[in-house]
């Protein structure tokens, strides 16, 4: 999976199409990502030590990694990702501007 925690992505399909956000968690085993402010669901939570009151809370649900595309930090455009070898390291490269990240 080419998306990592902290990457800025744009949603390509679904109810939140066009929204941009930062990846909070990457779940490579399930090929899913959790994006800040995208796919927000309401969940009922019982009272516990961390949450004294309980009630209904909003939280982000995972979405499929194929439904998001990376936003290049250099040019700011939505782009596909290429790969380049730098010795033993494998770098991700923006297909539009060539920026390595």
From TrEMBL:
SMART domains found in the cross-reference section: KOW
Biological process, per Gene Ontology: translation
InterPro entries from the UniProt entry: KOW, Rib_uL2_dom2, Ribosomal_uL24, Ribosomal_uL24_C, Ribosomal_uL24_CS, Ribosomal_uL24_KOW, Translation_prot_SH3-like_sf
Cellular component annotations (GO), alphabetically ordered: ribonucleoprotein complex; ribosome
GO molecular function: rRNA binding; structural constituent of ribosome
Keywords for the protein's UniProt record, in alphabetical order: Ribonucleoprotein, Ribosomal protein, RNA-binding, rRNA-binding
Top-level taxon of origin: Bacteria
Positions of the KOW domain: 2-29
Membership in a protein family: Belongs to the universal ribosomal protein uL24 family.
PANTHER family attached to this UniProt entry: MITOCHONDRIAL RIBOSOMAL PROTEIN L24 (PTHR12903)
Function: One of two assembly initiator proteins, it binds directly to the 5'-end of the 23S rRNA, where it nucleates assembly of the 50S subunit.
NCBIfam families for the chain: rplX_bact
Known partners and oligomeric status: Part of the 50S ribosomal subunit.
HAMAP family: Ribosomal_uL24_B (MF_01326_B)
Protein name from the UniProt record: Large ribosomal subunit protein uL24
Provenance organism: Collinsella aerofaciens
């Amino acid at each position: 999976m080419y998306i990592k925690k902290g990457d800025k992505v744009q949603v390509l399909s679904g109810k939140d199409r066009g929204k941009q956000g930062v990846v909070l968690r990457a779940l490579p085993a399930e090929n899913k990502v959790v994006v800040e402010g995208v796919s927000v669901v309401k969940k009922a939570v019982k009272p516990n030590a961390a949450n004294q009151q309980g009630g209904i809370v909003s939280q982000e649900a995972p979405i499929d990694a194929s439904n998001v595309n990376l936003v290049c930090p250099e040019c700011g455009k939505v782009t596909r990702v290429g790969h380049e070898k730098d010795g033993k390291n494998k770098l991700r490269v923006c297909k539009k501007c060539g920026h390595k990240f």
